[in-house]
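User: For my dataset I need records formatted as: sequence, then structure tokens, nothing else. Please produce one.
Assistant:
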Amino acid sequence: MSVDFFVVPTVSFKVLFVFVVLAHARRRIVHCNITEHPTAQWTAQQISEAFHWEAGPRYLIRDRDHVHGPAFRWRVERMGIEEVLTAPRNPWQNPFAERMIGSIRRECLDNVVVLGESHLRRLLGDYFEHYHSWRCHRSLAMDCPAPRPVQGPERGDVVEVAEAGGLYRHYERRAA
């Protein structure tokens, strides 16, 4: 697993911080939350929420940001997770999270003006639903993070389905 933050400016020039937790095996976004003021306590709470009923990962890749302070490190240690720190100013050492954040920016946030926190939550929720169910990944043999069966011609014609108000589209077979 890996964690990272990225920032999103709003139309009123507020800066929102988005925290994401990514599972590497299927490129699945395990947890995401938004805040205006990230702290080590808030980040520690997010880790607890991401893995509250299931066993945490063995390793957690993260950068050396100050929001991963003593409270965060204490919580991760108590959960039995070993932290793997990237070198300072080397985002290439956390490639899965950086690639996912780049995809979020290119495919979602570069196409809209974020109005506020609730708008950003709705946008990211729609994007993550599309990302998990329909977005193909080369590393997953052109499958999506949530595996789906192949739709044969007997299921009907191929139709275009718009998602998130037309921001994304996917194609599937549907009977007429």
